[in-house]
Amino acid sequence: MNKIWFGWLLFAAWIICTSWLLFQSGNQHYGEFDPKRQLQQHTQQLSLLNGIAAENNSGAVLLHVLDPDCPCSGNAKTHINTLQAELQGQQLQQIYLSSTEVQAMGISVPATPMVIYLHNRQLVYSGPYASGPACSAKNSMLSAVLQNTSRLPGSWLNSETWSCRCLSNSS
User: Fewer CB within 10 A of the terminal residue: the chain, N end or C end?
Assistant: First the structure.
């Protein structure tokens, strides 16, 4: 009888430990996008941001800031593909840069994957592609902003959203 109880106790302990480890590893990159509020600097860095998109002086520019070493970038690429289909026919310049390239230009990158949307040389949005642990296109922050169905009084510096992200070394 003691062997049976010990077996069940061992099995229960194994289930609990395995579940905890899976939860920890699955949520390792899930958290607040910009805990140090570095995105707030983007309004002061507008001239640097516009410098990246110098060829498109008036219009819409989407800067994709990705880190190939971040596991969340795969989710962002899926999201980007979904956005591409939604935005067909719109005049939108898209630029892909690594976090290292953007930081070398003097622009704050609190985490990746990050997207920056400029319209008529004004900062409209800066932050994650979507909320949630999978950064799914279903939880997109961008669709309404890019399609002008969501009017913002100013720049949306989306620091507080919880998403799949890899914090930058500078954060």
Answer: N
CB atoms under 10 Å from CB of 32, counted, come to: 16
Would you say 42 and 102 are in contact if contact means Cβ atoms under 8 Å apart?
no
CA angle 140, 143, 147 (to 5 degrees): 170
Q: Where are the domains of the chain?
A: 29-167
Q: Give this prediction's pTM.
A: 0.78
Taking Cα atoms as reference points, which of 52, 38, 63 lies closest to residue 104? 52
- Per-10-residue mean pLDDT of the chain, 171 residues long, equals 76 73 61 89 85 70 90 81 76 88 91 90 89 69 73 81 82 45
Nearest residue to 75 (alpha-carbon basis) of 22, 127, 34, 131: 131
Between CA 152 and CA 26 the distance in angstroms is 34
The architecture (CATH level 2) of 29-167 comes to 3-Layer(aba) Sandwich (3.40)
Torsion angle defined by CA atoms of residues 97, 98, 104 and 110, in that order, rounded to the nearest 10 degrees: 110
**How many whole angstroms separate alpha carbon 135 and alpha carbon 59?**
27
Place of tokens 């953007």: 102
